[in-house]
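Teaching assistant's notes for section 4

Start the section by putting this record on the projector. Ask students to predict, before seeing the second block, whether Peptidyl-prolyl cis-trans isomerase will look compact or extended. Collect guesses on the board.
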Amino acid sequence: MLKRLAAVAACLSVLTLAGCGNESDGKADVTAEDTSSASPSESTSASADEGAGGETATCEYPADGQEPAREVEPPAADAPAGGTVTATITTNFGDIGLSLDAAATPCTVNSFVSLAEQGFYDDTPCPRIGDQDGFGILQCGDPTGTGSGGAGYSFADELTGDETYPAGTLAMANAGPDTNGSQFFLVFRDSNFPPSYTVFGTIDEAGLTTIDAIAAVGNDGANPAGGGTPNEDVTIEKVTVG
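Reveal the predicted structure now:
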């Protein structure tokens, strides 16, 4: 989901731009101004067996009370809980290659893969970018482009409390604990956020180059949480898994 973004020790959400946002406005955002030391949720809906292969996690994706931005089915409850999954975000600026960590964040990866395979992210905008000291993210995942849209369900955080957000990090935006949805953010500058956003993968070097090109066009600076709308439209044309 998409929620809010700001500066050092920021609250990064993809629902207030979906990362660290206001639950009251239904947005997900990552915010650089939030200096609260919010502790990660200790309860998660994922319970995975440990092992080298064939592990599964049981995940819960309850309805969040909002109409989905696009009609999609919730992910299956049984999620692979081992290894990595590759994916490519194709944008009008170029490709962004991803490696998704299904071992550490099985429910998050399961949701992202499910939405991608259903075409939820195809032909959707990335409406927010922030490029400043301690805060460099591109937020995507809301087909409405408003920062308040999602897939109609939510799921729990998958946090250790040791999360950091260096360049190359892929993380979920949210509007508070356990409010993950469809919105996510791509970190292209080392960013200072509290460990409140689930980190579920990494971005390849070519992908960082693509995001640098997006950042170079600038933004309107209108987002109160940090950054703003890119000066040129940024569109996810499709997300390919595998």
